[in-house]
Amino acid sequence: MAFTEDSSQLARLRWRARRGTRELDRLMGGWLDARYAHADAPTRATFDALLDESDPDLWDWLIARGEPPQRFAAIVDEIRAQHRL
User: Fold this and answer.
1) pTM
2) What is residue 37's DSSP assignment?
C-alpha cells in the first residue's frame, strides 16, 4: 500500500486510541475500525479531540457513570451501542 496522508493519519489515530487498559483500547479502537473510514470530516475531528481526553473521563462516559460533553455525545453513544455498555 502506498504511503498517503490518510494512512499516516490513521496510523497516528490508531496509536492514540491505545489507552493503556485493554477495555479502553478495545472500545476506542473498535470505533476507529468500524466507523472512522465512513465518518465525515467533522466526526473524524471530534474523534481526534476525544482522544485528547483523560482515560478516567473516557471510562466514566463510556460506562455511563458520567455524561460526556455534548460535542462527544454522538461518538460515545455509538461506542456504547456497539458494545452494549
Assistant:
1) 0.86
2) G
